Amino acid sequence: MSARSIRWTRTGAAGAALVLFSFAPTAGVSQQIPLSEATIADLNTAFESGAVSAEQLVTMYLARIEAYDQQGPSLNTVLWLNDQAVEQARELDVERRRSGARSSLHGIPVVLKDNVDTADMPTTAGSILLAGSMPPDDAFLVQQLRAAGAIILAKVNMSEFASGATMSSVGGWIRNPHSLDHSPSGSSGGTGSAIAASFAQLGIGTDTGGSVRGPSTANGIAGLKPTLGLVSRDGIIPLALSFDTGGPMARSVYDIAAMLSVIAGVDSADDATSVAEGRVEMDYTAFLDAGALNGARIGVARQFLGGDPEVDWVIGAGLGHMEAAGATLVDVTFDDWLLSAKADWYTTIRWREFREQIPAYLATTEPQYPKTLTDLVTRSQEILASTDDGGRPNPVRWALFKEEEASGDVTDFEYVTMRNHGIRLVRDHVLGIMERHGLDAIVYPTSGMRPDRVGQDAAVWDVPSATNFANLTGFPDLIVPAGFTTDGLPVGISFLGPAFSEPTILGLGYAFEQATRARRDPVTTPALPGEGIGR
């Protein structure tokens, strides 16, 4: 099956969109919440009152995809659309009336990054080299979502094989709905853009070196890189298993917590999750407290400021809100040796692990697909122009294939040293900072610079980035919208905590979100007529 023939624009999905607003508003509803502002709690209230149904919710989101993804601003986020989504929503509505909701995600539409396996839609990692590849089964977290009653609405575009520029050889460049000339960041750029544009209620990204958090801040939404081992990686195309994790992305911290409650858990197919035994919370929304900043001790890593005066101003204003809410701010500093070495430490592990680990995933694909990184290199060199089935070259990512292939083996002393000692050293250093100052979290700008322009993702920053500390340590990092620059570009703030501190950082992030109310809808994707959720 060709990539072009299974793009959503080539299926019958557009026909479904023609009947999206054939329903009438429920009688007696006097107020409506904008779709983009409704949380899962709001939706469940509306479901129970009859103000909206899952079928109506899905059709509202489909209408937005129809209007804004390949048309209008052409955000280019959706690769594969679930043409059974309306029927599935209808069945879930019947089930709700008959026996009640399975969970708070019952009837909630979700989009998935295209490196997360789905048995009913292709999973290609955004690569024409895997065009049409149908996994044998769902990823574990997809099984959890479906069991909870969530609707997998679409698979979305990404940086190919979760690295390189914010484009793929299957789908091309992804656009930021706040400014079409600017990058949505990667590698989960399609998820970030889609959630910001309200193409679904929830999204799944993956994070190896910042790939949930960069797109969350660049698109002005919330996102969580969980503790390594809290969420199963089974069925996620690997980039480097020492760092990889799936993570929730949403427009509100509440929805992040609600989704985490479903996808967190121990999975026998992923040994890393064994550390989560007894540490998984049943309901992370229970820890959301608008007063959580009162009495909290927050470390401020100011050495990640100084690259963009407007980003600095937004973060400074946010810190002021924290103090006004009763938090004690403590300046903290990461040692210079760690800042200068961490990128090389990360690459030493990341490149070799991709080379070593990608064959195990490729072995699950059908015989016609590449089976090794060497195969990916060879086949990529055969595609020098656009193909008949809609593919196109991706020179930045494909050049990286060659660097990964030449990086060495996981038996090399450099890798063994970093894997066995370097990760522990970074973890102990960061944890030592937190313990010395009695901190609940450390905060810093998720990105010290506003988003790059499309096609300039490799711009050199004037300040170091703290992003991959969460990967090198395995610690959780929550991103919350903090404000905007004068040219309308989002700024996000990170809340980094120790392992399994998700209840704490979600509480702090929620309090910050409620105090600042900084998220805004993108200017390129306004509300459609008749769109809203009855109270």
What does this structure look like?
This protein is α/β, with parallel strands linked by helices. The protein has a single domain, classed as Amidase signature (AS) domain (Amidase signature (AS) enzymes, Alpha-Beta Complex), CATH 3.90.1300.10. It is 35% helix and 13% strand. It has 15 helices and 15 strands. The strands form three sheets. The chain has an eleven-stranded mixed beta sheet, with helices on both faces. Strand 3, helix 5 (140-147) and strand 4 form a beta-alpha-beta unit.
Keywords:
single chain; 535 residues; alpha/beta; Amidase signature (AS) enzymes; globular; disordered N terminus
Question: Topology, pairings included?
Answer:
Layout: H1 13-17, E1 32-33, H2 40-49, H3 54-68, E2 78-81, H4 85-99, E3 109-113, H5 140-147, E4 151-156, E5 167-168, E6 172-173, H6 189-196, E7 202-207, H7 213-219, E8 222-225, E9 245-250, H8 253-263, E10 297-300, H9 309-324, E11 328-331, H10 336-362, H11 373-380, H12 395-405, H13 413-437, E12 441-445, H14 469-473, E13 477-484, E14 490-496, H15 502-516, E15 533-534
Parallel strand pairs: 3-4, 3-7, 10-11, 10-12
Antiparallel strand pairs: 1-15, 2-4, 5-6, 7-9, 8-9, 8-13, 12-14, 13-14
